[in-house]
Amino acid sequence: MRTEYHENLSQLARLLHEMCLRDRTAIATATNALVGGDIDQANLVIDIGAEVEAMAREAEQEAMRLLALQSPVARELRQVVTGIQLTGNLQRMATLATHIATAARRRHPEGAIPEPIQPLISRMGSAAVVIATGAAAVIEAPDPDTAAGLDQQDDLMDHLHEELLATLLDPAWAHGITTAVDLTLLGRYYERFADNAVEVGRRTIFLATGEKADEWSPAHRGDD
């Protein structure tokens, strides 16, 4: 019976991993839609977002079933509880990518991003893909050291976000208030996407060690 239970836990982990991969595809495609003004790619992101929503409901139902099936102990309980928490983070990542795609679709065919800002947005999109890739890796193989590294990857997104805000506040800004508001929101979406990916890492540290991310360090490992 425990063997079956552990297999069910593995199935939940695989579902979460697939959700994270979909999030990565969504943010990459949303960036392409935004920079290139591609309505088809924007619509694709919205479809991916709906798929992730359905997967999130499935993951939540599976986690609740696992809680009710047997009395999980120690690491098993951490896996189920962390699975429920990760579902929320992964669902929010898809939602944020959908917001970006919606902005691209709303401004079509004029385009939402002035040409001089497009390289910066592309870099933010690339940073989001990198951190989503890292989040997927730690879901697939929960290693606390790798999970902790997501914080460092998030530093790049923070720097890019600061650069975007500085550009918008520059007195030389010549692209209008509406565009500035759009870009402020878009920057926030990318930043929050990365923040949720970091939270995947922090929750994985708890899963692997039983310690909160703020309390854990490589020299201080918890026991199962």
Return the string of H and E elements: HHHHHH
Number of discrete helical segments: 6
Mean pLDDT: 90
SSE class: mainly alpha
CATH class label: Mainly Alpha
Tally of discrete structural domains: 1
Q: Indicate the CATH topology.
A: Methane Monooxygenase Hydroxylase, Chain G, domain 1
Low-confidence stretches: 220-224
**Fraction of helical residues:** over 70%
Query: Main beta sheet, described?
Result: none
- Given the C-alpha coordinates, what overall shape results? elongated
Strands, total number: 0
Strand content: under 5%
The CATH architecture can be given as: Up-down Bundle
Written overview of the protein:
- This protein is mainly alpha-helical.
- It has one domain (2-209): Phosphate transport system protein phou homolog 2, domain 2 (Methane Monooxygenase Hydroxylase, Chain G, domain 1), CATH 1.20.58.220.
- 81% of the residues lie in helices and 0% in strands.
- The protein has 6 helices and no strands.
- It has helices at 2-36, 39-69, 74-106, 118-140, 144-169, 177-209.
- The protein is elongated and about 65 Å long.
- This is Phosphate transport system regulatory protein PhoU.
- Pfam families: PhoU.
- Homodimer.
- Belongs to the PhoU family.
- InterPro entries: PhoU, PhoU-like_sf, PhoU_dom.
